[in-house]
Description:
Layout lengths: L5 E6 L2 E6 L4 E6 L9 E2 L1 E3 L5 E3 L6 E7 L7 E12 L5 E6 L4 E6 L9 E4 L6 H18 L15
Antiparallel strand pairs: 1-2, 2-3, 4-11, 5-6, 7-8, 7-11, 8-9, 9-10
Amino acid sequence: MSKLSAAVSQEDDFDYVVKSSLGLVAKVAKEKPDISYLHDAVVFLDDGTPVFVPEVGDHVVIERPRLGSMTEWFDTRMYCVKEVNEENGNLSLFDTECDCWAGSNYLTGSSKGLLFKIPPKGWSLSAAIRAAQKKKEKKLKKEKVPKPAGQKRKKKK
């Protein structure tokens, strides 16, 4: 077994991925949370210049597409902004859930399908993920499964 092998287990609304050589545990949502109602973290001035709205110490939610796809969802993470380089667009971010550093670029990220959103104070990504899972389960319950041909329905008394 290689040092980089990963074990995956399921619990509630998340898949837990454990990389044994690094000792990391990361939560990966099973369902795409709805973040469309959150305010954009990147806004454009009248001259077309992009501006990153969150300041150092604020949180930002980033939704990423699967590599090579602009439409297929990969994951959604919430980070604390540690540094913003306005010249080249680089962001230094910290994921408090995984206790790890991350980086992104708000100038080139949008062209690669990344969504940058501002969560309101007290907003929880975990709660948004659970809401997405419940919405899917409710939709599945509404869909009626057709009975196989030849079976009779029971009469109500």
